[in-house]
Design goal:
The complex is a heterodimer. Chain A has helices at 29-32, 78-85, 123-132, 152-158, 177-186, 200-213; strands spanning 5-18, 21-27, 40-44, 55-63, 68-74, 91-98, 110-116, 136-143, 161-166, 173-174, 193-197, 216-220, 236-240, 251-255, 262-264. By secondary structure, chain A is of the alpha/beta class. In chain A, the strands form 3 sheets. A 7-stranded mixed β-sheet of chain A has the order 10-9-8-7-11-12-15, with helices on both faces. Chain B is α/β, with parallel strands linked by helices. Chain B has a single domain, classed as TIM Barrel. Chain B is globular, with a radius of gyration of 18 Å. The chains are: A alpha/beta, B alpha/beta. Chain A binds chain B through residues 3-6, 44, 49-54, 95, 223-238, 249, 252-253, 272, and chain B through 25-28, 32-33, 35-36, 48, 56-57, 59-65, 68-70, 72, 74, 77, 223-224, 252, 272, 274-279.
Chain lengths: 272, 309
């Protein structure tokens, strides 16, 4: 993992790609080369101290050639609203890249990527990297309704097979994205690895499906975050510990920011 | 005009090259910030609170932003003193900055044993002093329970005093009726300095789920929102005790630091601001120096407690 930098990056372009969902392209040559799919940046959204804390935002695309990164985020509160209003040409104060990133096994041939809602944000870079490594990639996207299906063609353009589920049936399959995953597994399309990001109940279900089918499953978790550099222990999640003889504790709180945000689904304590 | 004003201050017999310290719990074990700042430039480092044994801490969510501040309920998750000594302190030895260990315990005996153990390794591992946490609002045993009762404060500080010759800084809670009584008890019990304030107890509610936003229900409020409260308490304690005071509470820019110093703080600790700007400590140190030059003040100590009423 490369060092986290505190740098200013210029906003090159911005676009509202779906209602309340924004894509921002950043000039970030200092970090683009070393950024891994699944990592995030911690952004000072305002230019003063209101709101006070930074906001952790997933890296959506990494363009190493141009030294650019893209972020994709949903406006959910004061911080993300301010971020969406920052102008092209503005400099953003960021910390990054942060986190461990997804771990694509060299021996994996088939990769399943599952995103729910804004959870697709860290998955496009992962899809691109998987295809660069010549994996066969399927992508399942879940959304509330058609207009909130985010940039599915970007995955398709990379060469992945994409299926979509909407809660209200306004686009493709009506139901949950986890239904699509179950169908794929039952239909005999067995991935070597499943990567997922989205709401916690979705991730929990995906982990169950993966466990049953004996497939490695990695999930991207989120939690309220303060420092983003592993110092404050604010953003923890409960993780089962590996066997240590002298250690009586069966689980521990790990930091989503620097120990994650990607965890093995089988390690996560889901019901807590 | 002076070109090199004196920034050195002395706290509890510890010489600091400038009055800017880090607040416990906001600076990890120091190393987390080494990518962003030169740790050698700090006045002192106060590390994440430590117990004799490792502690898991509270379930998440542990932090939530509030207007001009944040609530936290980490619950003193820590690696325990032996891991601190073996794995965390060696890294800090190469820096010429005093390292102060913030200590906690569930019982007085635990505090005493912890102080004794750190005293034992202090020379070898470079422990300059102890900050005694009797003010954490997020743990069931110990913590703030100790620091809201003057008699208990006296007992605990006195017991630690007898167990170690290390400089003792006692960190006070603002969640009391009269902070002066607690401050006096700590001074009489042998504290070399006081640091204040720890966080203010608070809460936030999610109106949709009607659940508290923190799993622990309550948390400690920090950040700019608490600064006026902290300043008032520093000013009161400054008039009550003779030992030096370290001002803490919402310092995010040089003006905040100067306010505390003028109100009676010999040094200051920067906390929540480290989360927003990892370089904030160094920026404030540089700006204090600039300020002294501009105002033609030869020595930072001239400002301490210089408030005009």
């Amino acid at each position: 993992m490369s060092a986290i930098l505190n740098i200013k990056v210029k906003i090159l372009s911005k676009k509202e790609v779906a209602p309340n969902i924004h894509l921002i392209r950043l000039d970030a040559p200092a970090i683009a080369q070393d950024t891994l799919p699944g990592q995030f940046i911690h952004i000072r959204c305002s230019q003063n101290y209101h709101p006070l804390l930074r906001r952790p935002i997933s890296i959506y695309r990494i363009d190493k050639e141009k030294g650019e990164i893209y972020i994709l985020f949903q406006v959910v509160g004061e911080g993300t609203k301010l971020l969406s209003q920052r102008a092209v040409g503005d400099n953003l104060d960021i910390l990054g890249p942060i986190g461990n990133g997804f771990n694509i096994y060299p021996k994996s041939k088939k990769i399943m990527i599952v995103g729910g809602g804004i959870g697709v944000a860290p998955l496009l870079a992962l899809c691109e990297e998987s295809i660069r490594q010549e994996k066969e990639v399927r992508v399942l996207i879940g959304a509330l309704k058609k207009e909130l299906v985010i940039e599915e063609e970007n995955f398709r353009n990379l060469g992945a097979k994409v299926d979509v589920a909407t809660d209200d049936g306004s686009y493709q399959y009506k139901g949950l994205v986890t239904d699509l995953l179950e169908r794929a597994v039952k239909g005999g399309w067995l991935a070597d690895q499943i990567f997922a990001c989205g709401p916690k109940p979705m991730l929990k279900k995906i982990n169950e499906i993966a466990l049953q089918a004996n497939i490695n499953c990695q999930v991207s978790l989120e939690e309220r975050m303060a420092c983003g550099i592993g110092a404050c222990l604010g953003c923890v999640c409960k993780i089962k510990t590996k066997d240590k003889k002298e250690d009586k504790v069966k689980y521990e709180y790990k930091r989503v920011c620097v120990d994650g945000p990607i965890f093995e689904g089988s390690e996560v304590v889901w019901d807590d | 005009m002076i070109d090199k004003p004196n920034l050195e201050v002395e706290i509890a017999g510890i010489k600091l090259k400038n009055p800017v310290m880090t607040a416990s719990g906001t600076f990890g074990y120091g190393e987390e910030f080494s990518a962003f700042i030169d740790l050698d430039k700090l006045g002192a480092m106060v590390l994440k609170g430590i117990y004799l044994k490792p502690k898991m801490g509270n379930p998440p969510p542990r932090v939530i932003e509030t207007p001009s501040g944040m609530l936290n309920a980490i619950g003193l998750q820590n690696v325990g003193v032996e891991v601190l000594i073996k794995e965390k302190l060696p890294y800090l030895k190469k820096f010429n900055t005093p390292v102060i260990i913030n200590i906690s315990g569930d019982t007085i005996e635990e505090y005493v044993e912890l102080a004794r153990r750190l005293g034992e390794v202090s020379k070898e591992m470079g422990v300059a002093g102890l900050e005694v946490n009797i003010s954490c609002p997020n743990v069931k045993k110990g913590g703030m329970v100790w620091g809201t009762d003057a008699k208990v404060t006296y007992r605990i500080v006195n017991s630690i005093r007898k167990a170690t010759s290390l400089p003792l800084i006692v960190k006070l809670t603002p969640n009391v009726t009269d902070i002066n009584i607690i401050a006096q008890a700590a001074e009489e019990a042998g504290a070399d300095a006081l640091s204040l304030i720890n966080t203010l107890v608070g809460m936030a509610v999610d109106i949709d789920s009607r659940k508290p936003k923190l799993a622990n229900v309550s948390g400690g409020l920090s950040g700019p929102a608490v600064k006026p409260v902290a300043l008032w308490l520093v000013w009161q304690v400054f008039q009550t005790v003779k030992i030096p005071i370290i001002g803490i509470g919402g310092i995010i820019k040089i003006e905040d630091a100067l306010e505390f110093i003028i109100a009676g703080a010999q040094a200051i600790e920067i906390g929540t601001a480290n989360f927003v700007n990892p370089n904030v400590t160094i920026e404030i140190i540089e700006e204090i120096e600039k300020y002294l030059i501009e105002k033609n003040i030869k020595d930072i100590n001239e400002l301490v407690g210089s408030m005009k009423i």
